[in-house]
Design goal:
- By secondary structure, the chain is of the alpha+beta class.
- Among the domains are: 83 residues, Phosphorylase Kinase, domain 1; 185 residues, Transferase(Phosphotransferase), domain 1 (Orthogonal Bundle); 137 residues, TolB, N-terminal domain (Rossmann fold); 95 residues, Serine Threonine Protein Phosphatase 5, Tetratricopeptide repeat (Alpha Horseshoe), CATH 1.25.40.
- It contains 32 helices and 17 strands.
- The protein has a 6-stranded antiparallel sheet with strand order 1-2-3-4-6-5. Strands 12, 13, 14, 15, 16 and 17 form a 6-stranded mixed sheet that branches. It has a 3-stranded antiparallel sheet with strand order 7-9-10.
- The longest helix is centred in the N-terminal third of the chain and has 20 residues.
- It is globular, with a radius of gyration of 28 Å.
- The relative contact order is 0.05.
Length: 738
């Protein structure tokens, strides 16, 4: 029976009934102590006497209390009065998405914006190990400005359920189907265990309904709907832009491994589709690595290099979205069909090709394919001398521009001709091939290839740029002392610009080096501005601006926005996602740090950076065994490098494992006796031990050594306890940041 207006539940005054459902009645109410409007969800007596219902109600309280996100309903209190169990929540004005859809479907741009907000909420929930399991339009509230709030975590399932959560475990054991039938994932419909990807299927159903006004799996009965979810493809949608249709199709895959692998990835795909919808353009392309048509694997570098350089040319074309090398090549190696590859990358077109080398001649075939239907838009075959390879790249890029951006093809054709020494350029491409592998042996081979390239073509600006980038990389991760590596990198960068001042990525790299070596912020700004003038769309330029122009000054939210845009073009990049995780850590957004860590682990389980991000995010949320275990995994996968050793000491100390920190510090001391160990490694161990005097000493040494890990000194959360210390202000002034 509904509570009357004026009834009190503890200190709260009931104002009126908002609605009722299987999990309770929701009332508008007021908290007179704080003078604010609230909502109260009351569990009916009949349900309160049922252990399953009461358990679900209590889980909703715990789930909501664990979350703090602008698109997730905030819980204020939980209680019981006179046998009535209730939940006190924020009052969210607006209407449910279900009520809005009663008036008909939404236009695509609006639907995509709403779905992206829901995906953002799910990413935060999944980062807290919470799966919603009942996502549907009636659980999505829309404000007047379409701001989304996700409601009703009554069926929320902890991904790592607590040992005493017997109600959920019992439901899972006996195979009960929980949720709302039309929005269930196949695994949920069959009573199997679910993971976060189940929520992504449900969001795909909601998006489908927003765009069409109907559900994708319709039948005359609940049993028929369940059968359709398990067996049938979704009913086709006509008239949607290809990018939007691809997002929905991928969400609704029966196989969880074929869906988006995280809510963050889905959110980026939705925003990308929305951006293309607003611009009215499907001018988006990914260049896959070209296939080698000869028996010798020694030509692999030429296949990748040709594709990579075409990508570089295409990124200079305004208005054309070009997927970065990392993501395009990763998808190319997956062996996906055209539609799947296009959906994974969020592009309307793919450029595929093959290379056959015969001595000094090369035969290249290329074809531009529409991802929506696999049709060939353009194809060509080229037989050229290797001396003409750069001209060939420009011709292919011009042909793509002609199909996708019309008159912009002429801009490519007007590019100045670039003379090339074929053997020197081949050595350069081979160096880029090994540099991309990133292992110590591969980096050494890359350096040797670049050296050979310069011996053959001593005026090659791009080879000097590659050597500058290689030495920066070696210095950043502590392979060699940073001062030495960064100084060598600066020389190579200056030489590259002396030969060709139009290299945007080199100006951006020089800006980074002015930061690393000199803490010369006006020069950093000058070089980055020049890089933007030359090529604002370059992924490397945007990344270097974020981590050098913004991060050192604690402008972390701005830097995250740069990387959000960058991830549209490079969604599978481990390095870009790692920097996003770093920035989220610095911006005090641990849920995003955890989400990025999990995303990286899903993309590449054996890469240490994903486990590092997960460990840092968990440590920011709740220091303890989970954070330590994640960082231990990162340390092992990295080959026990000093970088991960230091952070393992930091999180071990936060977990109260003092003896472990002492052991790690001793290990670092033994490593330092044999070679370079960054001062930041000892700094982290000192902080883990609570030895701030030692930590300040090591921070000072890190600044002198140009240890790049000290760069976010203005933002590191673990330095918060000493920001008022006079020694901290002195360190900031030493870096020209005070």
């Amino acid at each position: 029976m509904a509570l009357a207006a004026g009834t009190r539940l503890g200190p709260y005054e009931i104002l009126g009934l908002i609605g009722a459902g299987g999990m309770g009645e929701v009332y508008s109410a007021r908290d007179p102590r704080l003078g604010r409007d609230i909502a109260i969800k009351v569990l009916p007596d009949s349900a309160a006497s049922d252990p399953d219902h009461l358990g679900r109600f209590e889980r909703e309280a715990r789930a909501l209390a664990a979350l703090n996100h602008p698109h997730i309903l905030t819980i204020h209190d939980v209680g019981a009065v006179g046998g009535l169990h209730f939940l006190v929540m924020e009052h969210v004005p607006g209407v449910t998405l279900a009520a809005r859809l009663a008036a008909g479907p939404l236009e695509p741009g609006r639907a995509l914006r709403i779905a992206a907000q829901v995906a953002d909420a799910l990413a935060a929930a999944h980062a807290a190990s919470i799966i919603h399991r009942d996502l549907k339009p009636s659980n999505i509230m829309l404000a007047d400005d379409d701001r989304v709030t996700v409601l009703d975590f009554g069926l929320a399932r902890l991904a790592a359920a607590a040992a005493d959560d017997r109600t959920v475990d019992a439901l899972t054991r006996r195979g009960d189907v929980v949720g709302t039938t039309p929005y269930m994932s196949p695994e949920q419909a069959s009573g199997k265990p679910v993971d976060p990807r189940s929520d992504l299927f449900s969001l795909g159903v909601v998006l489908y309904e927003m765009l069409t006004g109907r559900r994708p799996f319709a039948a005359d009965s609940a049993a028929g709907t369940l059968a359709a979810i398990l067996r049938d493809p979704p009913a086709p949608i006509g008239g949607l832009p290809p990018g939007v249709a691809q997002v929905i199709e991928r969400c609704l895959r029966k196989d969880v491994a074929a869906r988006y692998q995280s809510a963050s990835e889905l959110r980026e795909a939705l925003l990308g589709a929305e951006s293309r919808e607003n611009s009215g353009s499907d001018a988006s392309v990914a260049v896959l690595p070209f296939a080698r048509m000869t028996a010798s694997p020694d030509d692999d570098y030429l296949c990748e290099g040709l594709a990579e350089e075409i990508i570089d040319v295409l990124t200079e074309i305004p208005g054309l979205k070009v997927i970065a090398r990392t993501s395009a090549f990763a998808v190319g190696r997956m062996g996906l069909d055209v539609r799947d590859a296009g959906a994974r990358l969020g592009v309307a077109y793919l450029l595929e090709g093959s290379v056959r080398r015969d001595g000094a001649r090369v035969r290249v075939t290329a074809q531009l394919v529409r991802t929506a239907d696999g049709s060939h838009v353009w194809s060509a075959r080229y037989d050229r001398e290797l001396t003409d390879v750069l001209v060939l790249e420009d011709e292919i890029a011009a042909a793509i521009a002609a199909r996708l951006r019309g008159q912009l093809a002429e801009e490519v054709r007007r590019r100045p001709q670039r003379p090339v020494d074929p053997e020197g350029h081949a050595a350069y491409l081979e160096g880029r091939y090994f540099f991309a592998r990133g292992t110590p042996d591969a980096l050494a081979r890359a350096g040797a290839c670049f050296g050979r390239a310069l011996a053959l073509a001593p005026e090659s600006a791009i080879t000097y740029d590659a050597l500058a980038e290689l030495h920066w990389y070696l210095g950043f991760f502590g392979n060699v002392p940073p001062r030495d590596a960064f100084s060598q990198s600066t020389w190579y960068a200056l030489r590259a610009l002396e030969l060709d001042d139009s290299l945007a990525q080199t100006h951006a790299l020089l800006g980074m080096l002015r930061k690393e070596l000199d803490y010369n912020w006006p020069e950093v700004d000058r070089e980055l501005r020049r890089a933007f003038e030359l090529n604002r769309a370059s992924p490397l330029v945007r990344l270097r601006y974020a981590i050098s122009g913004l991060l050192p000054h604690a402008r972390n939210d701005e830097a995250m926005r740069e990387l959000e845009a960058l991830l549209q073009a490079d969604p599978l990049s481990i390095i870009t996602r790692w920097w996003m995780a770093v920035l989220a850590h610095l911006a005090r957004k641990p849920a995003r740090t955890i989400a990025e860590g999990r995303h990286m682990i899903a993309l590449e389980p054996g890469h240490f950076l994903g486990h590092w991000a997960l460990g840092v995010g968990l440590n920011d949320t709740q220091p303890g065994p989970e954070a330590v275990a994640a960082m231990q995994q990162a340390h092992a996968l990295s080959g026990e490098i000093p970088f991960t050793l230091g952070f393992l000491g930091l999180v071990s100390g936060a977990a109260g494992l003092r003896d472990d920190v002492l052991r790690l510090r001793e290990q670092a001391e033994r490593m330092a006796a044999a070679g370079y160990v960054p001062p930041s490694t000892f700094m982290c161990c000192a902080i883990g031990l609570g030895d701030w005097d030692s930590a300040f000493e090591w921070m000072d040494r890190a600044i002198d050594a140009r240890d790049p890990i000290i760069m976010p000194i203005k933002s590191f959360p673990f330095l918060d306890p000493v920001r008022g210390d006079a020694r901290f202000g002195a360190l900031l002034r030493k870096m020209n940041l005070g």
